[in-house]
Amino acid sequence: MNDSVATQDQKAEYRDLIILGGGLVGMTLALAAARAGITSHVIDRADPADLTAEGADGRASAISTASWNLFTNIGLAPALKDLGCPIDSIAVTDSMKPGRIDFTPKPEEGSLGRMFANRDLRLALFAAAREEKNIAWHVRTEAVRRDRGPHGVEVELFDGRVLKASLLVAAEGRQSPTRDEARFALAKWDYKHRAMVTGLFHEKSHDNTAWEIFYPAGPFALLPLRDDDQGRHRSALVWTVAEKDAAGIIAMPDAMFLHEVESRMHGVLGRITLSAPRMSYPLRFHHAGHVIDERLAVIGDAAHGMHPIAGQGLNLGLRDVGALVEVLTEGMRLGLEPGDAQLLARYEKWRSLDTFMVMSVTDGLTRLFGIPGRLPSAARRLGMGAVQRLPSLKRFFMDEARGMSGKLPELLQA
Fold first, then answer.
1. Mind telling me which residue stretches traverse the membrane in this protein (predicted)?
2. Domains of the chain from N-terminus onward
């Protein structure tokens, strides 16, 4: 097993990459790189057993078609294919008033994506990492020193071990200390909203439909999950509330919380009960103006954090993974090392426009649907009705949901 115990005798082992953060994006990078023959140290402060414990995390993620292609191409599909729920349709509505949009592809076009419990994604990633010789996995520890220079990078761990590599990759999430230490400029703001996240059992089948219900206080999303082992219907809930109201909602007993949720569902899934712990987190936007520095690349939430309105946060991070692995692989074939400045510049140029476009659209939707009042609501529903009637416009939005627009890395192509 390639974990912190197995690498005690590798105090200064040189590898191609040091990846700080072994979450969904960081570990996917390690696996994708490993399949291309690129070696890595992965450092994570968490204990994998805690992250994958039953009931520890009720969150779920929408995996776009492009991201599923990535999982398939790095060999994760067999472990995951029976755990995800296809998203066959997306219903978008303004407060459940007339004028909704239904995004439903033709049967031969496949689904709009798949919903997975985050726990299932982690279990598959961690199992694959343990069997991959190109990954040295250091858990329950963290970097206390990061040095980058013209000839490589060096990281000292909490227990004194020193790891060396050509390139340092920061995948530590929104509060990335490596990004902050490098003094990357961030465009950022607080939406003054909080996401209430949990899982629901419900009486009626969701029919593989995701619901995005926009209320003035924020979007209310019901995302389809597979039925559990007892045949109970399940969905993930992401309910956005104003920060000023969040403390009161968090303090609600479960029965009161469920009553509030049910009142916003208008009976679309029937009676509901909780299937997962209730969690919440503040919603903020941040975007790094640069995602590279000397022998450093920043990926995933460390580089960009957005509102969950379109479910694209993880998918954007997986596009970072595909682009970085492709750039490094092509460069190493030409004899360049992973930390070469030319390769990093190519990675940044590739990702900058795509990231900016996705985040701008997501932020725009958040603001558009957050304007209260009858007139803005009527205007939104008029626009939604126009989209519903225009196949070409619906096709554009469905391609965006699938993650199939723009220049895709090879790993994200079928």
1. 17-38
2. 14-187+284-412 (3.50.50.60)
